[in-house]
Amino acid sequence: MRQLSELLFERKVNSPTISSGTLTLNLATGRYFKVTLDANVTTLTFSNVPSGVDCTVDLKLVQDATGSRTFAWPASVKWANGYIPTVTATASNYDIFTLHTDDGGTTWSGFIGGQRFV
Fold first, then answer.
1. 75, 80, 57, 71: which is closest to 23 by C-alpha?
2. Across the beta sheet with 55-63, what order do the strands follow?
C-alpha cells in the first residue's frame, strides 16, 4: 500500500521557470508541473528521472497575459501517429499533457490531457 506522503509528493504543484528558452522538469521535486509560458520554450529537459520504474508526469502549460508563446517538444517525446501537438496561443489559456516513461527517461510517450479556454 502506498504511503500518503508518496501520493502527496506526486500531486505537489511544482512551478519551474523558463531560463533562456530552457525548461527543466526536476522529477526529484514531484510529478505535477504547472508552467507559466512567459517566454518561448526551445528546450525541454528532464532531470532526476527514476530508473527501473514506471514514471508518469503531468504538465500544465499556461500562456501568460501576452500569449503566443511557443513550446518545442524534444525528440525523446513520442506522440501517437507522429502528431506533435502545439500549445494554445491565446493569452491566459492552458493545455495539459501527460508524459510517460518506463526506461529512465530515454523515451517518453506523450498524451494530450485537454485544453482550457478562458
1. 71
2. 13-14, 32-37, 55-63, 94-101, 108-116, 77-79
Contact between residue 34 and residue 77 where contact means Cβ atoms under 8 Å apart: no
**pTM of the predicted protein model:** 0.89
Strand-pair category, 22-26 with 43-47: parallel
> Is residue 82 scored above 90 in pLDDT?
no
Grid cell, residue 70, equals 511557443
Over residues 65-86, mean pLDDT: 94
Model pLDDT, residue 6: 60
Rounded to 10 degrees, the C-alpha dihedral 46/49/52/54 comes to: -80
Backbone angles phi, psi at 63, to 5 degrees: -70, 140
What is the grid cell recorded at 77?
Answer: 517525446
Which amino acid, one-letter code, is at 93? N
CB 31 within 8 A of CB 58: yes
**Max Cα separation, the chain?**
45
Q: Which residue has the higher pLDDT, 21 or 3?
A: 21
Question: What average pLDDT does the segment 86-100 reach?
Answer: 95
